[in-house]
Design goal:
The protein is α+β, with helices and mostly antiparallel strands. The protein folds into two domains: 209 residues, Gyrase A, domain 2, CATH 3.30.1360; 77 residues, Elongation Factor Tu (Ef-tu), domain 3, CATH 2.40.30.110. It has eight helices and 17 strands. The longest helix has 14 residues.
C-alpha cells in the first residue's frame, strides 16, 4: 500500500480532494522557474511587479502580480528571496516562452541576469493538515519555527544537492514548497515522507478544487479578459506606485458599482458551460466563467463575473446547465470550507 501511494496519484479527483483536506498531498510543480542574480535585481523586479520590493526581507517569499502594458493581469507570481538570488514561480498558467518574452521587455541593468527554467532545478509542493509533519523531516530544527512565507535551507540525501524549503501554499491548509537542484530526488523524498503520514501524490483536479474553495480559483481558471478590478485583485496593487511599474498607467481605482469575480455554489451534478448567462428574477446579471472540478461531493463551485451589487454573498440566482435545465445558484463567501489546518497544531 505504501508503494502505491508513493508512485501513483489517487484514482479520482474526489480522492485527491479528500487527501488534501484530511492528511497531506504532494504534487510536482510544473510552472517555469526563473532565477535572477545581480545587485540590481530588485530594481529590475520593481519595473513590472505591482508591489515594491523595498521592504522584502531575505529568505522570504511573497505573492505578487505582474501586469500587461494595458493594465490587465499577466500573471500571479511567487517571488522568493534566497541568499543573493531572486526566484520567480508563476501561480497562474503561463509558458516558459511567454514568461521569457515578457521579462525580455525590460532592461535588466548592469550585472543582472535572468535565467528562465535554469537547468537542473525544479520544485515539489505538499499541502494538507499534516504537511508540517512531512516538512519536519527536511529541517534540523522545530518545524513550528518556520513561519508562513519564510524560507530555510533544507537537507536531501542526494550527494551535493542544494534545497530550500519555503512555507507557502495554495489551499488554505498547511503548505510547503521544496526547491532543489536535484528535483527528482527531492520529489521522491517528499513522496516517501507523505506516504508515512497516510497521504499521497495528488492530481490536478483535486488540487484545483481545494484552491477554488480557498479563494484561489484563478490559479486554474486564469484571467480571461478580466481587468484587475473585475478579477478582484486590487489588493495586490501598490496604488502609491502608479506610474512606476509596467501597466500601472492603465489602472483605475476600484469602485463599488463595478462587475466583480464572484464564487457561487450549485447543486451537485450541475454542469455549466463557460459563457452561460446568470440571472436574477429573469434578468441577466452576470456571466459564468469557470466551473471548478467536481471533487467535493457536497456541492458544485463556479466562478462568474457579476454586476454590482449582485456579487454580495447569499443571493439566490439561476443559470441554465448544459442539458438545458434551470439550476439554482447562490453567491458564497470564501474560504468555502474551514481548513482543518486551522485546528491542527504544529507540534
Amino acid at each position: 500500500m505504501t508503494t502505491t501511494l508513493t508512485t501513483s496519484a489517487p484514482r479520482t479527483a474526489t480522492e485527491a480532494y479528500a487527501t488534501l483536506r484530511t492528511t497531506v498531498g504532494a504534487y510536482r510543480v510544473t510552472a517555469p522557474l526563473v532565477r535572477l542574480t545581480g545587485d540590481d535585481r530588485l530594481s529590475f523586479l520593481d519595473g513590472f511587479l505591482a508591489k515594491s520590493a523595498d521592504y522584502v526581507e531575505p529568505d522570504t517569499v511573497r505573492e505578487v502580480l505582474a501586469l500587461d502594458e494595458d493594465g490587465t493581469p499577466f500573471a500571479i507570481l511567487l517571488h522568493f528571496e534566497i541568499g543573493d538570488e531572486s526566484w520567480l514561480l508563476p501561480r497562474t498558467a503561463v509558458t516558459a516562452e511567454e514568461l521569457a518574452a515578457y521579462l525580455g521587455r525590460f532592461e535588466q541593468g548592469a550585472g543582472v541576469t535572468v535565467d528562465v527554467e535554469p537547468e537542473g532545478w525544479g520544485a515539489t509542493a505538499f499541502e494538507g493538515p499534516l504537511a508540517w509533519s512531512v516538512a519536519a523531516g527536511f529541517v534540523d530544527f522545530d518545524i513550528s519555527g518556520l513561519t508562513l512565507h519564510a524560507i530555510t535551507e533544507s537537507s536531501l540525501s542526494a550527494p551535493g544537492a542544494t534545497a530550500h524549503l519555503a512555507r507557502v501554499g495554495t489551499t488554505g491548509e498547511y503548505g510547503y514548497l521544496l526547491l532543489s537542484d536535484a528535483p527528482q530526488a527531492a520529489h521522491e523524498a517528499v513522496l516517501a515522507a507523505v506516504a508515512e503520514q497516510g497521504g499521497a501524490e495528488v492530481g490536478e483536479d483535486g488540487l484545483a478544487r481545494v484552491q477554488a474553495e480557498a479563494g484561489m480559483g484563478l490559479y486554474r481558471a486564469g484571467f480571461g479578459e478580466l481587468t484587475v478590478n473585475q478579477a478582484d485583485l486590487a489588493w495586490m496593487i501598490d496604488w502609491s506606485r502608479i506610474g512606476e511599474f509596467h501597466g500601472s498607467a492603465g489602472l483605475t481605482a476600484p469602485t463599488a458599482d463595478e462587475a466583480r469575480l464572484t464564487t457561487l455554489v450549485a447543486p451537485v451534478g450541475s454542469r455549466f458551460a463557460p459563457g452561460t448567462p446568470i440571472a436574477a428574477a429573469g434578468r441577466q446579471v452576470g456571466t459564468l466563467l469557470h466551473q471548478a472540478p467536481a471533487a467535493n461531493p457536497e456541492e458544485e463551485l463556479v466562478l462568474a463575473l457579476l454586476d454590482a451589487p449582485f456579487w454580495v454573498p447569499g443571493l439566490e440566482l439561476t443559470a441554465t446547465d448544459v442539458p438545458g435545465d434551470t439550476r439554482p445558484l447562490r453567491t458564497a463567501t470564501l474560504p468555502r470550507v474551514i481548513a482543518r489546518s486551522l485546528t491542527t497544531k504544529i507540534a
